[in-house]
Specification:
Layout lengths: L29 E7 L4 H11 L7 E7 L7 E6 L2 H4 L2 H6 L4 E7 L14 E5 L2 E11 L2 H10 L10 H8 L7 H7 L3 E8 L4 E5 L8 E5 L2 E5 L3 H6 L2 E5 L5 E5 L2 E5 L9 E2 H7 L5 E2 L2 E2 H15 L6 E4 L5 H11 L7 E3 L17 H4 L2 E3 L1 H4 L3 E6 L6 H12 L4 E6 L21 H4 L2 H8 L3 E4 L2 H8 L6 E2 L1 H4 L8 H18 L6 H4 L1
Parallel strand pairs: 14-23, 17-20, 20-21, 21-22
Antiparallel strand pairs: 1-4, 1-10, 2-3, 2-4, 5-6, 6-7, 7-8, 8-12, 9-10, 9-11, 12-13, 15-16, 18-19
């Protein structure tokens, strides 16, 4: 059975099973981390995932290995890194190699079965994978593999890659398998002898290479290197496959060359401000976005207030450019983790207030500019305006450090369908009225790109412009899923693969 899970080498534990909470902000995709050649690989990976926690809070996991013919060790669970791993768990994860993953689901439901890294025992030996991104041809490949006899154990697109890798040795091998997938993918993979890092030819998602005491390290972001005192060596190039083994490191470029399309939203929101992307500090870019925003949409006001944390630097740039005082009037609660209590009728906006509380004295009687990184559905932004009005703000002006989101993302960001995007359905005047603000201003595409000090042609701007670098046909995916469901109904409940029973 191609790519079946081996229960003998899987050691999963469940910290808790949350109900998926619907958010009104763009949800993160994932973060990956890997170590090759260090006696404390699991501990280093644990701290690396800690630094990448902002990229996903649903589940976390680590897989370790010692060498050929020794079983992989795996520990995954739902929750934050600090909740998933204990000292005992890390002690059990022996090995000199490790890959780790933090997840926020973009494909597949939020369950323990979909937690990564995934691990398979195959005819080619043991394989493990952690994936950041989204495959646009996932439905086609999965349908093809199922017709060939593969039985899938999860609903995530990452498992498709493992099934391709697990095919018989006469097949096309690792590089050939990678050529079959399309979309956004930054991967860390581990076989019994090698650690492999992969970045898709468009370079949608970040992936970097570091070094520590003779060991090689891979990470979604450079901030993780800082935490473990690793040296940042370089970014993995778009289309590059890095293979690390006991003989050293080498690179392959198996993909057809295409125009780079790095996700602009990494700069706007996802990446940590202390990370480097294209050798440019993220905080510096966000501050420049705020300055560009101030030049485009100036306003007379008494106070500039950021929406923490991703709005902090843009608000700072906005305030500096216009010479307006900057104040952290919204105070963030950093200790709540994720909230699973449902709001009651008495506390209808609990999910908004639980994370941010307002210093009322700072805004009472003031003309306030609120700077945020984005507005998706608009419900959270509206609640912020209500909070400020209730606190006695004289005027409330909204300024957003990126253009309006009018289009869905198919490359690893869980933006809702276009009809659920506020800017897709409303004019700027209607958005202003819905929020209850005195004015609203978005940064334009040119100003946003200018803040990065890079060329527009190097970015994916699809969620703003609708210009998708990789063609996507959602109707084809829907057709395949319907055909799969029909096949499941014909099989009957007892004969259906696990996918249809779950």
């Amino acid at each position: 059975m191609a790519g079946a899970l081996d229960p003998l080498i899987v050691a999963d534990t469940v910290a808790f099973r949350p109900t998926r909470v619907k958010h009104h902000i763009p949800t993160h995709e994932c973060g990956v981390f890997a170590v090759f050649g260090h006696p404390n690989a699991a501990v280093l990976t644990y701290y690396g995932l800690f630094a990448l926690q902002h990229r996903g809070q649903e589940s976390a996991g680590i897989v370790t290995a010692s060498g050929p013919n020794t079983p992989f060790l795996r520990h995954v669970a739902m929750g934050l890194v600090s909740q998933v791993f204990s000292a005992t768990d890390l002690d059990r994860l022996k090995g000199t190699r490790a890959i780790g993953h933090v997840r926020y689901s973009t494909t597949g439901s939020s369950t323990l079965g979909n937690a990564q890294p995934l691990m398979f025992s195959t005819g080619r030996g043991q394989l493990a994978i952690g994936h950041n991104g989204n495959l646009v041809n996932a439905a086609i490949l999965r349908d093809e593999l199922e017709r060939q006899g593969s039985i899938f154990q999860t609903t995530v697109d990452s498992e498709i890659i493992l099934h391709l890798l697990a095919q018989p040795k006469g097949a096309s091998g690792v590089l050939g398998a990678l050529r079959k997938i399309e979309g956004a993918f930054s991967l860390v993979m581990m076989s019994e002898r090698e650690l492999i890092g992969v970045r898709d030819p468009f370079g949608f998602r970040p992936l970097s290479l570091g070094k520590l005491e003779g060991a090689w390290v891979l990470s979604s972001e450079t901030c993780a290197f800082d935490l473990i005192h690793a040296e940042f060596v370089r970014e993995i190039e778009p289309g590059e496959v890095v293979i690390i083994d006991e003989h050293g490191i080498r690179s392959e470029f198996p993909f057809k060359a295409v125009q780079r399309a790095f996700c602009m939203f990494e700069y706007v929101y996802f990446a940590r401000p202390d990370s480097l992307i294209s050798n440019i500090n993220v905080a510096r870019v966000r501050t420049a976005m705020g300055r560009e925003l101030a030049r485009l949409h100036p306003v007379e006001a008494d106070l500039v207030v950021p929406v923490p944390d991703s709005g902090n630097y843009a608000a700072l740039g906005f305030a500096e450019e216009l010479g307006i005082p900057y104040h952290h009037a919204f105070v963030r609660n950093h200790y709540i983790g994720r909230t699973f209590l449902q709001p009651t009728q008495l506390i209808r906006d609990f999910n908004v207030r639980v994370k941010l509380n307002l210093i009322k004295e700072a805004v009472a009687g003031k003309r306030v500019v609120v700077v945020d990184d984005s507005i998706v559905r608009g419900t959270t932004a509206r609640a912020r305006v209500v909070n400020l009005r209730e606190a006695g703000a004289k005027e409330v002006h909204m300024r957003i450090s990126c253009p309006p989101h009018r289009h869905a993302c198919h490359y690893g960001i869980d933006f809702p369908d276009p009809e659920k995007l506020l800017a897709n359905q409303c004019t700027l005047e209607e958005i202003r009225d819905y929020l209850g603000a005195d004015s609203i201003g978005y940064l334009d595409v040119d100003g946003m790109v200018r803040a990065t000090e890079q060329d527009r042609s190097t970015f994916c701007l699809a969620c703003f412009t609708g210009d998708y670098p990789v063609p996507v046909d959602p109707t084809l995916d829907k057709f395949i899923m319907e055909r799969r469901a029909d096949r499941a109904n014909l099989l009957g409940a007892e004969e259906q693969p696990q996918l249809f029973r779950s």
